[in-house]
Amino acid sequence: MAKCGGAACSEELSKVADYNEVISPLPYFGNVGFYARLLQDDVLIDLHENYVKQSLRNRCELLSSQGRFSLSIPVSRPSGRKVKMGDIRISYDEDWRSQHRKSVRSAYGSAPFFLYYWDEISALWDKQPERLAAFNASAHDLICSAMGIVAPLRYSDDYIRSSPGLDLRPNAKTGQLDNPRYIQVWEEEVGFESDLSILDLLFCKGPEAEGYLQDLAL
């Protein structure tokens, strides 16, 4: 299947939500459920929503020997002010990119497909975009490229106040999908964890990840 990367992974769309559209925020290395939706449903990304802190918009959920944990991107947001997701700026006051790189390597260095994808994925943390949305879109482009999938991000041109279909924005604090078990690196130590970041599935299942996402019952 053709790879999806760069501008090919994004498409501006001027419309309101239809009944069959799934409305979603733009996550940082989105969870398994997010990517299953992208491949199976008609997903519309809303960057005009007000940014919600401590959510999957700026953090991804992974698994270590200590259990489920999150990596968060620090952001600069004026205190007491509501800011659109698309306007949120990343803070580089601390070297969080090195910390994210080291944490992922530590958690997944022994995964069966880690070395196959690591150089491509690790390149994300060499980037320094101003806005969180640009960084998350770059992460998505890397996932598309690594998995060899076409899953373009489609953006609304305004805030979507309501939708007759599924709206993922209110529950984007943590993974929600009870997806079927696959072998995880630390499963013997901490048990299986569902709906982790797509990185967990990619490093553990490799080329089988796409088929797993396509077969998920949503």
What characteristics describe this protein?
single chain, about 220 residues, alpha/beta, two-stranded parallel ribbon, two-stranded parallel sheet, about 15% strand, disordered N terminus
Could you explain how this protein is built, in words?
The protein has 218 residues and is of the alpha/beta class. It has one domain. It is built from seven helices and eight strands; from the N terminus they run ββαβββββαααβααα. Strands 1-8 form a two-stranded parallel ribbon. It has a two-stranded parallel ribbon with strand order 2-3. It has a two-stranded antiparallel ribbon with strand order 4-5. The chain is globular and about 45 Å long. Mean pLDDT is 91; it is low at 1-15.
Q: Which segments are poorly predicted (pLDDT under 50) over 5 or more consecutive residues?
A: 1-15
Give the overall pLDDT as a whole number. 91
The proportion of residues forming helix, as a percent range, comes to 25-40%
Number of β-strand runs = 8
Compute the gyration radius: what is it? 16 Å
Order of helices and strands, N to C? EEHEEEEEHHHEHHH
Work out the helix count: 7
Strand arrangement within the widest β-sheet reads: 1-8
Number of domains: 1
Termini separation (Å)?
23 Å
| Biggest beta sheet summary | 2 strands, parallel
Give me the secondary-structure category.
Answer: alpha/beta
**Strand residue percentage:** 5-15%
- Shape descriptor reads globular
